[in-house]
Amino acid sequence: MSLPNLSSLSPHAVAPTGDFATISRNHANKLNGTRGANDGHEPLLQKPYKAGGLYFRLLRPGKQLGSENPNDYDWFDPEELYKWVWERGGGNPLNRSPVSDEDRGALKDRFAPHVPSLPRLTRAAAREAGRHVSAAEEEQRRLEWVHGGPEQLRHAQRMPGFEQ
Question: Which of the 8 DSSP states describes residue 64?
Fold first, then answer.
């Protein structure tokens, strides 16, 4: 028995909508001269785009998946986008559209590879397993998960401006 021919399937069908990419000098100049939601600055840091700088791009709603046109994407500082998506649970900061699981994973793999992909145990899951988890314990676990473990949480709590 032979395997079916899969060559007609699009490689972009399950591809993430964005990725890490550098910005050309021309595109950086164009983005920096733009008037609009972010007034020519990277939206999260509010700093001008740098030619050759590494950014994470998210496909704008309604644009073609796999587009090579840099104008079809919103461009973000990758570390700040990671914080926005994982620590705040946010979508695209400019339009609130959801961020794909693949893009969330790519950001997590870059900036928090030691953090497990899922929280260890929520109260709902604990109830299903016949175990009681208090709200305080669940919150402690959530904070540990967000900050990468108990050691990182203790370090973060010592930092000025720590927010839970």
Answer: P
Q: How many CA atoms lie within 13 A of 70 on its CB side?
A: 16
Determine the longest span between alpha carbons in the chain, in angstroms: 64
Cα distances from 143 to residues 17, 87, 90, 149, 164, in angstroms, run 28, 10, 17, 8, 7
Compute the distance between CA of residue 93 and CA of residue 41 in angstroms, rounded to an integer: 13
State whether residue 19 is helix, strand or coil.
strand
pLDDT digits (tens, 9 = 90+) for 91-130: 888 888 888 878 888 888 888 887 665 544 455 665 656 6
Q: Where are the domains of the chain?
A: 19-111, 123-158
Question: What is d(CA 12, CA 16) in angstroms, rounded to the nearest whole number?
Answer: 8
Whole-structure pTM value: 0.60
* CA distance from start to end of the chain: 57
CA distances from 99 to 16, 17, 37 (A): 9, 8, 19
